[in-house]
Amino acid sequence: MQLQNSRGKWLNRIFYNLGIFQFLTFLRRGIFYTFMINYLYSLMHTATSTASLGTLNMVASALGQNLIWGKICDRYKARTRLIIAGETIAGITYILVFFAHRFLLDAGESFTAGLAIIFGLSFLEFFWSMSDVGWAALLTDVTTPKIRGRIVGILNFVASLGRMVGIFVAGFLYAGGEGFRNGTIFFTVVLLLFAGAALMAFISTRVKKANFTQTQNITVAETENTRETSVGNEKAYNWFLAALIIIVLGASCINQIFLLFIKLPSGLNASDGEMSIIISAWTVGGMIASATSGRLADKIGREKTILAALVLAIITPLLYGVAANFLLMALIYGLNGISFWSIQTVSFTLAGDLIPETKRGRLFSRYNTVIALSWGPAGILIGGPLADIQVKILGATEYTAFLNTFYVSSIIVALGTALFSIKFLKKPATEQPKL
């Protein structure tokens, strides 16, 4: 009993510090990326070039995680060390990217300065992705299937709070681009990165002690049970990823299209203030989902919770065209935020249940790559071309083209939902070892 109390004490401290780290991470992202696309466009004056940032970042992250960092994570059990290294390297690289882009700006090469940011951040992402792998494996290490959904949900809620604060701070720091040009935003982010690295170094000592007490409670029978189920779980995990790829591509391919649709004069024709309310509703929906979906998944099951979220993801795009005013659109988009963050929260939890302990680094690298498809590739590969073909080749109006793209999004998500249902609802997705 004393050993269990000691373990619980250390784990509570770990979760508290992980929450702070998560807040700092999304605070940083909110500060840096809220106006980055606007700043790049002011330098490069081309939408295609600025949109390439998310795609190149995704490719660099996928290569780093799947070729190097996932294997290192598994071989050396390097969770916190990868996070510390990733945050530190990112901080140093941000400084270099700022000075490179500033030098080109002073030389009158604004387009090249934009390229320096895009390629610099992509280079950074290759190494920074080691932090993503380490985080996913660490979070799975320190949780059990019984509480994993609740913990992941709480951390995602904290992430939403951090992002909202970051967006608010960015509004003051951006100053029409001066926040990037004079380095205020860059160096604010660098300080947050170094603070996160220092916090993770502190957490690492507690993780070691928690892991030591945890191993005292693992029996030989439980270890053998885990070995017997790991092969079957990995096969289920591969099917899960296949369904998730279809779902992510379908759901995220209309992200950019939606922002254009709500401003369309022939559509909703929302003002800047109304657009802000609609987007904020999505974030609020995500916060609600993060706070509740994990607990719900722990109670009724991962598969049922994901299925409910997928139904929302299918229905909401079909309703965008019927929203008569911005308040109704905010409600619909808020429901879409609930679906997206429920899927993200519970899918991570399910992945943690399915992935064998010895392959967490490598298999979470695949999971992170699938989720990263929503950064930009989905819009460039599906949503954007589909809308452009209808307008420029078939002669459809933008309003009709956007509506049809929303319908296609729902169809794609429905196909992924069907695959998920066939593989996971007929029988339990995991045979969880006793804890």
Explain the overall architecture.
It is a single chain. This protein is mainly α and 435 residues long. It folds into two domains: 1-217, MFS general substrate transporter like domains (Growth Hormone, Chain: A); 224-428, MFS general substrate transporter like domains (Growth Hormone, Chain: A), CATH 1.20.1250.20. It is built from 16 helices and no strands. It has helices spanning 2-33, 36-44, 47-76, 80-106, 110-141, 148-174, 178-181, 184-215, 220-252, 255-263, 272-300, 302-319, 326-354, 360-372, 377-393, 398-424.
Q: What order do the helices and strands follow?
A: HHHHHHHHHHHHHHHH
Which shape, going by the Cα principal axes?
globular
Helix content: over 70%
Number of helices: 16
Q: Any idea what the CATH architecture of the largest domain is?
A: Up-down Bundle
SSE topology sketch:
Blueprint: H1 2-33, H2 36-44, H3 47-76, H4 80-106, H5 110-141, H6 148-174, H7 178-181, H8 184-215, H9 220-252, H10 255-263, H11 272-300, H12 302-319, H13 326-354, H14 360-372, H15 377-393, H16 398-424
Helix pairs in contact: 1-6, 1-8, 2-3, 2-5, 3-5, 3-14, 4-5, 4-8, 5-14, 6-11, 6-13, 9-13, 9-14, 9-15, 9-16, 11-12, 11-13, 12-13, 12-16, 13-14, 15-16
Keywords:
0% strand, 435 residues, mainly alpha, globular, disordered C terminus, Growth Hormone, Chain: A, single chain, 2 domains
Summarize the structure.
This protein is mainly α and 435 residues long. The protein folds into two domains: 217 residues, Growth Hormone, Chain: A, CATH 1.20.1250; 205 residues, Growth Hormone, Chain: A (Up-down Bundle), CATH 1.20.1250.
